[in-house]
Amino acid sequence: MGGTSEIWKELWSAARKYSEELAYSGQEFPLVQDDSVCVLCHQPLSEEAKQRFTSFESYIKGETQKQATDAARDAKQAIDALPDIPSAEALKTKIDAAGIESQDIIKALNDTVAYLQGRKTKVPSLDSEDALEQEQSKLMALPDTNYPTDEQVEVKVGKTPYVRFERNDYSVPHTHTRKSLLVVASPAEVRVMDSGECIATHPRCYDKGKQIEDPTHIEGLKKQKRAAREHSGKDRLSHAVPSSITLLDKAAERGGNIGSIVSTLLRMLDQYGATELESAISESLAGGVAHPNGVRTVLERRREERDQPVPIPIDLNQHPKAREVSVKPHDLASYDQLTEQEEES
Questions:
Q1: Are 129 and 55 in contact (CB under 8 A)?
Q2: Is residue 165 helix, strand or coil?
Q3: Bridge partners of 203?
Q4: What is residue 202's three-state secondary structure?
Q5: Measured on CA atoms in the order 53, 56, 62, 64, is the torsion positive or negative?
Q6: Residue 268's closest CA among 240, 230, 228, 231?
Q7: What is the mean pLDDT of each run of 10 residues along the chain (345 residues)?
Q8: Which of 274, 256, 254, 252 is nearest to 265 (CA)?
Q9: Helix, strand, coil % (nearest 5) of the chain?
């Protein structure tokens, strides 16, 4: 609700009267309970609307009290600015000094001074503090809710679960990435809101370049990443080695650590290849062993039967130069030329 013009004040006063006398008789205005509606538009009040109603009523009451104080001060200044009314003796002295002899004029002057004396006795001789004390009993009490002064800033969350506020990063749950959120900051606290729901609370940091984290947010992110890696590994195994699905199902029935089993089978896949691992898993399952140890035993036996060396895993990710190598596909047209030369010869 913007503006505090006289029209708005009159509308607000009318809304207060309607609420207290008709809509919510006997209830303090504004009524901001869960089931209350706006007395102006009869729509349900959101949390933001309730805060606006309460803060505007607080402002109006504060404005009314200020106006009462200003009026009392202005009245005192006006009274103090009035010239002194001469007494009867002082008036007679001034008349004699002026040489006025007409009884009609003298009577008119005496009547005027008497009238002014009577008017002055009717003007209250109150200072501003006394006037405010008398007016306070007639003023409505201020609401319990303070006027909202928290800073509010809309922020966007990228791929990482952090919001940037005043050159610092505050953590949020990993489920709220790539979204627009609202930061509500008081002098001591930073809250992150999503559609009116508080999803994160942190102490406010006045430094710069800091990461303020909630341990529960970090732990949730770690669990999500572990689950994603496990799911990705299962997908790779199921496509390369179909029998691994049966092994994992049987291992799960026996309470095995699926994540550890998937990691072990993936290492075997890299060392021995999909065909060899498929045969080893099938043979191990046929022997009633649904465990990577049984699969490893079969792979080692088959390797020794073929008199092959022990496969050595090579992890190129540990070599920065290998990661930087860019392999450019060769133009296969030159092979066609070789074929043509052979046919001609």
A1: no
A2: strand
A3: 189
A4: strand
A5: negative
A6: 240
A7: 56 69 69 67 70 68 65 71 76 83 85 77 60 72 75 91 93 91 93 93 92 90 72 81 89 87 88 89 90 91 88 70 69 70 60
A8: 274
A9: 55, 10, 35
